[in-house]
Design goal:
Length: about 140
């Protein structure tokens, strides 16, 4: 199974450059739709419900302090299967032209993030996990 760095490497090969925030949202949606369409996770790294939306802490730590990201040297895009690449390609087609702010606002309206942050005040830090089950159920019903 690929990890989040492999997925990020593939996304960055396709997009050439993204803000750290937008990359986080795109890997989140790639995971969500993989759970629905492929019925399996795209990567095993944990996703948490941070104040600005879903974040993969492993990816965040790798790019901490960077605003724009042009490459993911920790990842290997070739580790993604044909089906996984197709899933990411559709996510990029549907979400890739949206801004990071727009994507973040969208996640704030969706149940996986909202439920993981239940009882946590707006803007407060949280490391609550967004589960695969919550993602598969919500996005599978759209």
């Amino acid at each position: 199974m690929a990890d989040v760095h492999d997925v990020a490497a593939y996304i960055l090969e396709k997009t050439k450059s993204l803000t750290a925030m937008k990359l986080q949202k795109l890997v989140y949606y790639a995971q969500a739709w993989s759970l629905v369409w492929d019925e399996k996770p795209l990567f095993k790294n944990r996703i948490e419900a941070w104040a600005n939306g879903p974040v993969v802490p492993d990816l965040y730590q790798a790019h901490r302090g960077e605003f724009t990201i042009t490459a993911e040297p920790r990842g290997d895009a070739s580790k993604l299967t044909k089906d996984e690449r197709e899933t990411v390609d559709v996510v990029l087609r549907d979400y890739g032209k949206k801004t990071a702010t727009w994507l973040s606002a969208l996640t704030h309206k969706e149940d996986p993030w909202l439920c993981a942050r239940d009882g946590i005040p707006d803007g407060e830090r949280s490391n609550q996990q967004i589960t695969h089950a919550a993602m598969a159920e919500y996005y599978g019903n759209l």
